[in-house]
Specification:
The chain is mainly alpha-helical and 237 residues long. 81% of the residues lie in helices and 0% in strands. The protein contains 10 helices and no strands. α8 packs antiparallel against α9.
Length: 237
């Protein structure tokens, strides 16, 4: 939201420079506040990175969590990174950058869903929460498509996709951290997989919008959800 307002007033270069400065400040503040930790052995960082493939290979549940979150985050990323093209583009709603940035308020749904998702994981199990999150995301995709013409559908879809993303993240990360004997390495694999899925989907969403419009973006999001679920539907030993 603030990025849209600053972009409207000062241009996008200022927004990106400001984001870089804030990232650097937060990184330094985090390094200062967190307690110091001694390394257990030389080369432990690289040993952990080298162990990533083996940890994922020997834990089917971790692999499944990584792939499903990559599918979910990819679908969200394709839709959310392309939404500005629909809202501010001449072929879409023609909003100003500041008005389009107000859609960031829908991200507040995440702060409500996260604690609820944790409770649901404790009560029903992580697997059921992931299935429910995928169902929510599947419903949001056609709503996003309808949102190309109807603002009400677009708003509803924005809430649903954020709820699905956060619920899926809470549940999948729970699986990733509790089904491996190396939780730190497992969490690294999980985070890398999620961002890789999001980056690749975003890279495809731009050309899809250029060739087929908003419907092409929704198709990319839907395909990512199908791939994320279908690739993990069959349990392996």
């Amino acid at each position: 939201m603030l990025g849209g307002l600053f972009g409207q007033a000062y241009g996008w270069r200022v927004v990106f420079v400001g984001a870089a400065v804030l990232t650097a400040v937060l990184g330094l503040a985090t390094a200062y506040i967190l307690p110091a930790e001694r390394r257990r052995r030389e080369g432990s960082l690289f040993a952990g990175l080298a162990a990533l493939p083996g940890v994922v290979r020997h834990s089917p549940d971790l692999w499944r969590a990584c792939v499903r979150q990559a599918g979910m985050y990819g679908a969200w990323s394709a839709l959310w990174t392309s939404l500005a093209l629909l809202l501010a583009g001449g072929e879409g709603y023609g909003m100003t950058t500041a008005a389009a940035g107000l859609f960031g308020l829908f991200g507040l749904a995440a702060s409500v869903v996260a604690p609820l998702a944790g409770g649901l994981v404790d009560r029903f199990g992580a697997a059921k929460v992931v299935r429910s999150a995928y169902l929510l995301a599947a419903v949001s995709v056609p709503l996003f498509w309808l949102g190309g013409q109807a603002m009400a559908a677009l708003c509803a879809a924005a809430v649903l996709v954020h709820a699905a993303l956060v619920a899926s993240h809470v549940a999948n990360q729970t699986i990733a951290l509790t089904t491996s004997s190396a939780p730190a390495t497992a969490n690294t694999a999980y985070v890398v997989s999620g961002f890789a899925g999001g980056a690749l989907a975003s890279a495809l969403a731009g050309p899809a919008y250029g060739h087929w419009g908003w419907g092409g973006v929704c198709a990319v999001a839907g395909a990512w959800l199908v791939l994320g679920w279908a690739a993990t539907a069959v349990r392996t030993r």
